[in-house]
Amino acid sequence: MRKLTRVGLGRENIKIMIINGPNLNRLGSREPEIYGSITYDTLFSELKNRAEALAIKLEIRQSNHEGDLIDWIHEAGDTFDGILINPAAYTHTSIALLDAMKCTCIPVIEVHLSNIHSRESFRAHSVTAAGAVGIIAGFGTMSYYLALEAMLRILRE
Ligand code: CA2
Q1: Quick one: which of 114, 156, 157 has its CA closest to 137?
Q2: Which residues on adjacent β-strands are paired with residue 16?
Q3: How far, in Å, CA of 128 to CA of 90, rounded?
Q4: Which of 22, 70, 85, 107 could, after both became Cys, cross-link 64 (CB 3.0–4.6 A)?
Q5: Which listed CATH number (3.10.25.10, 3.40.50.12780, 3.40.50.9100, 3.40.50.261) goes with 11-156?
Q6: pTM over 0.85, yes/no
């Protein structure tokens, strides 16, 4: 685990990996009443701009395959300071993802665009949440900005 912030180095050294799960690459193409109408590319290019203004390096990835998400959590543990993850539908099913999140030595924040507690009952339970330091859900695209801010505060402590 990189301990830059814990030994007092500046925020400009912070590297955060953002991992997005299945179908999130299709953002903006349907259900705008739930997920908004912004596209995946626009959301994450704007978030990247915000991070750059704060001198934080973001690595943004998306996959529709569970194993990719797990491999990236492992990889992030070696070279990144924190992970923001939206596991999408795997939130509700994946013990493998939960195990990977629990195993990594860097903080993980789970992010959701929608309020998973106000939707279908099968979305109300997050299998993966127990592997996160916390969850931010229901604020649309703002969820990612709030999660980024929360991660910076965690890393600064
Ligand atoms: O609210 C979230 O961020 C979710 O993780 C999104 C997942 C859903 O399965 C979770 O229950 C909650 C769905 C991702 C699919 O995203 C799309 C959104 C709009 C258009 C196409 C895909």
Answers
A1: 114
A2: 58, 82
A3: 8
A4: 22
A5: 3.40.50.9100
A6: yes
Catalytic residue status for 74: no
- Exposure string of 33-67, with b = 16+ CB inside 10 Å and e = fewer, is eebbebebeebbeebbeebeeeebebbbebbeebe
Give the integer Cα–Cα distance in Å for 50 and 132.
23
What residues does ligand 1 touch, defined as CB less than 6 Å away? 23-24, 26-27, 29-31, 35, 86, 88-89, 91, 112-114, 116, 123
- Choose one of 38, 91, 135 to mutate for the ligand 1 pocket test, by most ligand atoms within 8 angstroms of C-beta: 91
Tens of pLDDT, residues 41-82: 999 999 999 999 999 999 999 999 999 999 999 999 999 999
